[in-house]
Design brief:
The complex is a heterodimer of chains A (109) and B (112). Chain A is mainly β. Chain A has strands at residues 4-6, 11-14, 19-25, 32-38, 44-50, 55-57, 60-65, 70-75, 84-91, 97-99, 103-108. Chain A is globular and about 40 Å long. Chain B is built from no helices and eleven strands. In chain B, strands 2, 4, 5, 6, 9, 10 and 11 form a seven-stranded mixed β-sheet that branches. In chain B, strands 1-3-8-7 form a four-stranded antiparallel β-sheet, with no helix packed on it. In chain B, strand 7 (65-68) and strand 8 form a beta hairpin. Classes of the chains: A mainly beta (109), B mainly beta (112). The interface between A and B is medium-sized, with 20 and 26 residues.
């Protein structure tokens, strides 16, 4: 089983749509969780940390379910500029980040 | 907003040559990392560095690789005797707490 697993997509959505991405992780000892976004041939950029209580940053909402080892990201009112690859990232301890392969989002006008 | 910087942006080298990739982490950060991303693949951890020593390294980070903090601002990755399969994007990252990590723009290494 992959350490961090994501649906590769692509998710093709119209502007204004709501889209949700899911991710599962295999290591139950994982300590912290993140969503990064990556534009083509650019560096990963931290989008948000993910907490069990859920957290929201503007149009973005992230949720962690430790029992199911499941992480989600919800994007509301999608913008063209949201088009990117969304990376689910897990810190399994010792400061080492383990990346999923990413989910491609394409927002179209 | 402070950011991680990396040089060069693109490095082309012949197989068997040594390369040094340079990074300037965010100034008050204490944890430093190197990751790589082969084209079309996921980002992979190489090594973490704290308090002037390696704190963790992956299976990829073998004797061919080394890291150094030669002064108070730079953090380097040296790859000895490069191979074709070392061609990738190499990202440096830094963190103040060891939790959230911030990435530089990367160095694209092409080995011919």
């Amino acid at each position: 089983r992959k350490e961090v697993e994501q649906d590769p997509g692509p998710f093709n959505v119209p502007e204004g749509a709501t889209v949700a991405f899911n991710c599962t992780y295999s290591n139950s000892a994982s300590q912290s969780f993140f969503w990064y976004r990556q534009d083509c041939r650019k560096e990963p950029k931290l989008l948000m940390s993910v907490y069990s209580s859920g957290n929201e940053d503007g149009r973005f909402t992230a949720q962690l379910n430790r029992a199911s080892q499941y992480i989600s990201l919800l994007i509301r009112d999608s913008k063209l500029s949201d088009s990117a690859t969304y990376l689910c990232v897990v810190n399994i301890g010792g400061n080492k980040l383990v990346f999923g392969a990413g989910t491609i989002l394409r927002v179209k006008s | 907003e402070p950011e991680v910087t990396q040089t060069p942006s693109h490095q082309v080298t012949q197989m068997g040559q040594e390369v040094i990739l340079r990074c300037v982490p965010i100034s008050n950060h204490l944890y430093f990392y190197w990751y790589r991303q082969i084209l079309g693949q996921k980002v992979e951890f190489l090594v973490s560095f704290y308090n002037n020593e390696i704190s963790e390294k992956s299976e990829i980070f073998d004797d061919q690789f080394s890291v150094e903090r030669p002064d108070g601002s730079n953090f380097t990755l040296k790859i000895r005797s490069t191979k074709l399969e070392d061609s990738a994007m190499y990202f440096c990252a830094s963190s103040d707490t060891g939790i959230q990590q911030f990435f530089g723009p990367g160095t694209r290494l092409t080995v011919l």
